[in-house]
Amino acid sequence: DALAPAELEALKKRKLVAVNIVKSFKLTPGADYAEWGSGKQAAADLTPEMLQQGTWKDYTFKAVNLDAMGRDPGEGHLHPLMKVRTQFRQIFLEMGFAEMRTNRYVESSFWNFDALFQPQQHPARDMHDTFFVKTPARTPTLPAEYLQAVKRMHTSGGFGSTGWRYDWSEEESRKNLLRTHTTAVSSRTLYEIAQHAKRSRDGFAPGKFFSIDRVFRNEALDATHLAEFHQVEGFVIDRNLTLGNLLGVLQEFFGRLGMRGLKFKPTYNPYTEPSLEVHAWHEGLGRIVEVGNSGVFRPEMLRPMGFDDDVSVIAWGLSLERPTMIRYKLKNIRDLFGHKVDVGMVKNNAMCRLGYE
User: Fold this and answer.
1) How far is residue 241 CA from its own chain's centroid?
2) 290 phi and psi angles, rounded to 5 deg
3) What is the DSSP-derived secondary structure letter of residue 39?
4) Each residue of 31-59: pLDDT tens digit?
5) Which of 81, 143, 159, 334 could in theory staple to 303 by disulfide, Cβ–Cβ 3.0 to 4.6 A?
6) Number of Cβ atoms within 10 Å of the Cβ of 155
7) Secondary structure tally for the chain: helices H, strands E
8) pTM of the model
9) SS3 per residue for 126-163
10) In this structure, which long-range contacts are made by residues 162-169, counting pairs with CB atoms below 8 Å and at least 24 apart in sequence?
């Protein structure tokens, strides 16, 4: 106080003085003050015993701070895979698709391979690529008439096809395994559609179906491959569907995922012809990446089920893990799925709105 403001500023510039602010507080007992142990402290909680005994009348209670944050109840959180799965499912439902039953992790080789016109000598049916089940090792129930129709298609062909021309084994088709793709679900669904058309007065009815569930493959584990993963699959069945219909549906489906400018590359699948890989530009990676596989189911698969010659099925599929890893910028699939997943990541990951980013 003895220095004029100008003198004080000059001394501060020359660093000869420094200003320190000292705050002091004086505490005095208030009206509700009570020493510890005196029995007069205000109660923090209203207990059941106080209510039962009526002693709450004798207590002074602490004021309730309604602005205070409550304790974290530690509720569960959706895994990123489940968030992306919900988005995929919503897109399918918005497009008018019906969900297929996917509750068969253990499937027979018949529905997983033979019904899809996949020969029994195909490398995918080797133990190095498929998990076979020991108990029970074989399925006892298969539709007898359809079984024989599939056998004839494999051994001698039919409906304009020469078949694979080999000695088809029923014992091989009855082997149980962990399904390697959700197309096994599609084959069962298509057979049910064919049987319903036979029994119904109205005959065949077109439809759109999808499935999202887990599949299993005996693969070497690395940053992008696991022995189990999730597969997304959809198909449309109607009369006289063509490759143009497939391309149109793919543009609509992947467009709703936010993927534009799709590129298509011919490829080979045992049960679709023609077959196409689906590629799209990825902004984060700065390059075109494969995002799915598609095709038109072969007549050798559909005719034994009992469908008419003009009934066609267009189908496509992709994994659930790849778009999830891209969405959440993960480079190693084991950071997303498995025992090495960070629980903190599951709790704190961002919301998912595919097609809106």
Assistant:
1) 28
2) -75, 130
3) S
4) 767 665 565 678 888 899 999 999 988 88
5) 159
6) 14
7) 11, 9
8) 0.74
9) CCCCCCECCCCCECCCCCHHHHHHHHHHHHCCECCECC
10) 163/300, 164/119, 166/119, 166/120, 166/121, 168/114, 168/120, 169/120
User: Distance (Å, rounded) from C-alpha 138 to C-alpha 298?
Assistant: 27
| Calpha distance 242→66 (Å, rounded) | 65
* pLDDT band at residue 71 under the 50/70/90 scheme: confident
Separation CA 21–CA 66 (nearest Å): 34
Helix, strand, coil shares, percent, the chain, to 5: 30, 20, 45
Of residues 323, 320, 321, 332, the one with CA closest to residue 354: 323
Tokens of 250: 């793919």
Q: Rounded to an integer, what distance in angstroms lies between the CA atom of residue 195 and that of residue 82? A: 34
Q: Report how far residue 60's alpha carbon sits from residue 38's, in angstroms, rounded to the nearest whole number.
A: 14
**How distant, in Å, are the alpha carbons of 27, 35, 41, 49, 210 from that of 60?**
22, 15, 8, 16, 64
- What 3-state class would DSSP assign to 56? helix
> What is the four-CA torsion angle of 236, 238, 241, 247, rounded to 10 degrees?
-20
CA dihedral 78, 82, 87, 90 (to 10 degrees): -100
Structure confidence at residue 352 (pLDDT): 67
pLDDT band at 356 (very low <50, low <70, confident <90, very high): very low
Q: Which of 319, 299, 317 has the alpha carbon at shortest distance from 308?
A: 299
Contact yes or no for 309/303 (Cβ under 8 A): yes
Residue of 49, 71, 68, 70 whose CA lies nearest to 58: 49
> Which has the closest alpha carbon to 198: 111, 123, 308?
308
**Element at 166 (helix H, strand E):** none
Is residue 238 pLDDT above 90, yes or no?
yes
Q: In the predicted model, what is the mean pLDDT of the chain? A: 85
The backbone torsions φ and ψ at residue 82, rounded to the nearest 5 degrees and listed phi first, read -70, -30
Give CA–CA dist 211/186, Å, rounded. Answer: 8
CB 208 within 8 A of CB 96: yes
